[in-house]
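Quick one: co-fold with adenosine-5'-diphosphate.
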Amino acid sequence: MDDEFSFIRSIVPKQVYQSRTKIGIGDDAAVYASDPTQDEVVCVDTMVEGVHFRKDTLTPFQIGRKVLAINVSDLAAMGATPLFYLVTLAVPTDWTEEELAELYRGMTSLANHLKMDLIGGDTVSIPNTLVITITAIGSVTKNKSLVRSDAQVGDIVFVTGPLGGSAAGFELLNERTKDGAFSELEATFVKMHQQPEPQVEISKQLAKLEKRIALNDISDGLSSESMEIAQASGVQLVLNEAQIFSISPQILSVSRAKRVEWSLNGGEDFQLVGTIAADEFHAAKSAAKEIGRELFQVGTVRQGEPAVFITSPDGEAKIEMSGYNHFKRG
Ligand code: ADP
Ligand code: MG
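Sure, here it is.
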């Protein structure tokens, strides 16, 4: 990057969506007005080149969009409406200005859709790999955030959409790279990996119900996200393989073991997993239907030491946690 100042000028949003935004990019810090009816919700996530993405599986546009999507997914998992974001970039010399512009075009494509304002960030240089961190800010009606610790015995476990598609897509991309040829079906999975859709609208529908709903987003895989709910709530989640299979990738040539692995541990689907009282599931399904969406039951909640089980024609098995651990040594 030749000139940091002209770069920053080039990324100033052309449009401000949020009436609460008072000062965006250009001063020492951003300023936005508070809203006494709301709780503020904030999260941050980082993607590192070579660890979380590679240029041969994602375009710069898709990388930018995906980092924002990951953060928005965390806001959605709290029942929050996304409002603002800030971007920290550590830029190596092999990233061109055009690629950086694409990175921002990717973020902007999602931000415009969600009416989020980019209100600041920081730019530094780094020797080898691009590091991008996004801080996202949203809001939720006071005391109405949807937390992991709200699951109770007798609840239904549900998800908001297909599981395992992103992992299937990632495997195809690893085989053939983003420039490879894909069948129409394969391309749908590749797209799930490259262009995940954070579940903002359905999360807002669930929050609007004002019911007790435990909620988590599926970034690391259904098993580990279910375990987080189990631990936070002090309950057991019993997942049902047939129900999960009915919404997992229908790639005929793939073995049952692989479909189980993808849909349970694949991760990066960015659907939501939640629990709700059995007699309120119908109301939640109706709320989803109002926006043309469905909720899918994938299990139940029962009493016991926090754990996750899966039932299949072979019986019931405890799921040992093998989800991604950032600090695991090889
Ligand atoms: P300061 O030295 O006061 O921190 P900077 O030169 O770092 O100012 O940033 C100037 C303005 O540009 C600030 O509003 C900052 O938030 C914004 N900014 C800097 N880098 C980025 C970036 N990568 N993405 C978005 N906004 C940025
Ligand atoms: Mg600065």
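If it helps, The mean pLDDT is 93.
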